[in-house]
């Protein structure tokens, strides 16, 4: 019953290792002889997780935020190896969706209780994701975040989103699925697995990671003042009742655009562009988290 714990040393503004040291004893006591490995790239995180799954490890724990969780989970889709996250990043929405507290000591103590639950995975093209696929001003905001010297966190995310609202020029897309046939210019399309992303923005508050469907939210083209007002309602989930915002669930979607548009996955820029087919994979990962 082997355990591999993968540390992303750059997660949490480089403080993930320091946070892990505070709870090493919790893991050592629960799983004597567990392996401690440090990744040197995002791809290496996936390789380390996949290697553990092929070798029949009982569990893999990723230490970091949503980016680390994304790349670790990529190596575990469809395997029997249980997956846990020790939330040590700046955005920990996937860990929260698994039922884990943000406090690292509390999360460690819950992980070793080994409550296993099915966790849906979403496939976009030939890639997997676990939190959100973004299109539109999401990409522009991520570019601002990645080029900033500020520490990652809610303030940087909010500031970058505001900059993107003023500068983004909406593009024409179509979204087609079982219950949606939308065509028009949009500010933002998010196709989600979790209720929140970007460190707690509850864009699709009804989303669940074990319900066998993905949620979507579309902000059509609108004036900047209206967009600011609409986003101000996100924190209280008031945007769900606004006629301008399009929300729903689906098991399959196809997204096309008049010109190829870049896609983001779990808060990471990618080399993917529209058109893209998106589908849900129910329970494709065995997640360690809170009691259902």
List the helices and strands and how they pair.
Elements: E1 3-7, H1 11-14, H2 16-21, H3 24-30, E2 35-38, H4 42-54, E3 59-64, H5 66-74, E4 82-87, H6 93-97, H7 104-111, E5 116-124, E6 127-129, E7 132-136, H8 137-147, H9 154-167, E8 171-177, E9 181-192, E10 214-220, H10 224-232, E11 246-250, E12 252-257, E13 262-265, E14 268-273, E15 276-288
Parallel strand pairs: 1-2, 1-3, 3-4
Antiparallel strand pairs: 5-6, 5-15, 7-9, 7-13, 8-9, 8-12, 9-10, 10-11, 12-15, 13-14
Architecture overview:
With 292 residues, the protein is α+β, with helices and mostly antiparallel strands. It folds into 2 domains: 3-114, Probable inorganic polyphosphate/atp-NAD kinase, domain 1 (Rossmann fold, 3-Layer(aba) Sandwich), CATH 3.40.50; 129-282, Tumour Suppressor Smad4 (Sandwich), CATH 2.60.200. It is 29% helix and 34% strand. The protein contains 10 helices and 15 strands. The strands form 2 sheets. Strands 5, 6, 7, 8, 9, 10, 11, 12, 13, 14 and 15 form an 11-stranded antiparallel sheet that branches. It has a 4-stranded parallel sheet with strand order 2-1-3-4. Helix 5 (66-74) links the parallel strand 3 (59-64) and strand 4. Helix 8 crosses helix 9. The longest helix has 14 residues, at 154-167. The protein is globular and about 55 Å long. The mean pLDDT is 90.
């Amino acid at each position: 019953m082997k355990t591999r714990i993968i540390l992303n040393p750059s997660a949490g503004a480089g403080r993930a290792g320091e946070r892990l040291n505070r709870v090493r004893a919790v893991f050592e006591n629960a799983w004597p002889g567990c392996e401690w490995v440090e990744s040197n790239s995002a791809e290496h995180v996936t390789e380390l997780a996949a290697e553990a799954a092929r070798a029949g490890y009982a569990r893999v724990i990723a230490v970091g935020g949503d980016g680390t969780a994304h790349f670790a989970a990529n190596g575990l889709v469809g395997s029997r190896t249980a997956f846990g996250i020790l939330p040590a990043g700046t955005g920990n929405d996937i860990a929260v969706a698994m039922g884990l507290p943000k406090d690292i000591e509390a999360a460690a103590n819950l992980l070793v209780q080994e409550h296993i639950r099915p966790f849906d995975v979403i496939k976009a093209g030939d890639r997997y994701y676990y939190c959100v696929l973004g299109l539109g001003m999401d990409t522009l905001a991520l570019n601002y975040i990645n080029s900033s010297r500020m520490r990652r966190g809610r303030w940087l995310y909010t500031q970058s989103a505001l900059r993107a609202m003023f500068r983004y020029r909406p593009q024409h897309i179509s979204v087609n699925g079982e219950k949606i046939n939308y065509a028009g210019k949009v500010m933002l399309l998010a196709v989600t697995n979790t209720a929140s992303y970007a460190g707690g923005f509850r864009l699709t508050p009804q989303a669940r990671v074990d319900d066998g469907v993905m949620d979507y939210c579309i902000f059509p083209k609108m004036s900047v003042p209206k967009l600011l007002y609409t986003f101000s309602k996100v924190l209280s989930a008031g945007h769900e009742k606004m006629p301008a915002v399009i929300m729903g669930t689906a098991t399959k979607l196809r997204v096309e655009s008049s010109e190829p548009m870049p896609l983001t996955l779990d808060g990471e820029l990618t080399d993917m562009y529209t058109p893209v087919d998106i589908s849900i994979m129910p329970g494709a990962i065995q997640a360690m988290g809170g009691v259902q």
